[in-house]
Amino acid sequence: MCNNKKKILAYFLIFFIFITDSFSQDDNILYFMHSLPQANITNPAVQIECPIFIGIPALSSIHAGYSNSYCSYNNVIIKNNDTIIPNISYAFKYPNSRQYINSELHLSILNFGFKNKRKYYFNFNIQDKIEAGIIFPTNLIRFPFEGNTAHVGENYNLSGLRIFGIYYREWALSISKVINNKLTAGIRGKILFGKANIHTFKNNIFLYTSSDIYQLNASSDITIKTSPIDVNINNSHELPEVNFPENISVKNFLLNGKNKGIALDIGVLYNYNENITFSASILDIGCIYWKFNPSMINEKSTFEFNGFYYNPNTNEFEGIDNLIDSFQYSYSFSTNTLAYFTLMSPKFYFGGIYYLNDYLNSGLLLRNELYHKRRITSITSSLNGRYKKICGSISWTVINKSLLNFGCGIGLNITGFGFYALSDNLIAAFKYKSVRYTNIRFGFNLLLGCKKAALLKKSTPTCAAYRDVDEKKIRFQNWLSKMKKNK
Question: How many angstroms separate the CA atoms of 306 and 320, rounded?
Fold first, then answer.
């Protein structure tokens, strides 16, 4: 009974990592909302006006998202009257390509920041991150519908099916410095503690159909590594047993610090002139070394399918038993417990802001992510505003061959208590069957010393609302005196 419980826990852990596919990607709309402390997540150079902020523990930043490069629900499902049927023709839309579905769920446990008189800004953040995804070849989807006759005499490549899942804790410290009136730079160092991982390092599958007798030859070579799952092989021709280690409790799992890693973020803000500010950042340059209960599974096979036939004399199919035996002994499994590295998925942001007036600016952002050797690109345009204790943004994002991604964000600061909520695709809440990309982030902060900071000349060159405060104050006093004379 105990072993069964361990097996169930092991499968549940893998399922838990991948169930987050219903939730991806750090929000693009957040990148230009510089009055929010969490904007520092996407660019470590960003500083807020308030001298001190304290995130409400476990509630300062909750982020979830979803991204699908291949399809939406409406692409693959057709409703005919009351009947729901698959859209088979869609399987042939992107031949010989690789698509992805990826996700992430982030929870900030502890987050605070402060600035000093020397124009340094410090931000400390502890986050739990769960990220998962799958990359798949479209040929794998097409094959059941078109069969092998269309590829007689050639190797049909079904390689590239890869699954990924990771759960880790991130301790991050960022330092931002106002170098001069034009340039602000920031850097963030991160220590990573891996909790669980599954990673497909190799998946090669080929099918060959001979042109003379239509014999089908299949070969595969697959390598998957995982931690902290135990993998046991009793027979190389049988599926491995997967178990959760008996010596690991839930507490030990959550506090496990043996799978260490490091990562680095770099960001800059550059004031081109009083109306234009450029910004750029590179995030998640790093890796994790998995040495706590690692396991590797390797599968290799070569299989020849000669078919089976129906015997009209006996009214039976013959050759099936031989076919099953041949298939079972065509593949073999091997395993080892060597430690391994996994790389993070680096992200690059480049954007620009044009200040329309003291309270309103427009932004344009290019984001690229290298997701397990596949580049994911998005472009976001936004209109960002701020008035007194309210900031807001509306955005439009192009990603995954989808244009219907209209986002909105809002932040409130009420006597030192701040709340914010934002999403890159609000349409998802109303037309979820057409969604290929969406996310949401919200949280609560304590913002201290903001009123005092508002009376001073702003120390960072990123927000027009706080530039030339002294000059604006004089203009306001002159206007007020003029109004009194007119009375």
Answer: 11
* Prediction pTM value: 0.81
Backbone angles phi, psi at 247, to 5 degrees: -90, 10
Query: Could you tell me which of 226, 344, 324, 230 has the C-alpha nearest to residue 282?
Result: 344
In the predicted structure, residue 23 carries a pLDDT above the cut 80 = no
Taking only the tens place, the pLDDT of each residue in 266-302 is 999 999 998 999 999 999 999 999 999 999 999 888 8
**CA–CA dist 294, 307 (Å, integer):** 40
Return the number of other C-beta atoms located less than 10 Å from residue 200's C-beta.
Answer: 19
What's the CA gap between 371 and 202, in Å, rounded?
Answer: 15
344-366: string of b/e by CB count within 10 Å (b at 16+)? Answer: bbbbbbebbbebeeeeebebebe
Plot region of 115 (φ>0 → left; ψ -120 to 50 → alpha; else → beta): beta
Tokens matching residue 445: 């902060």
* Backbone angle region of 262, left / alpha / beta, with phi > 0 → left and psi within -120 to 50 → alpha: beta
Segment 356-399, tens digit of pLDDT = 988 899 999 999 998 888 888 999 999 999 888 899 999 999 98
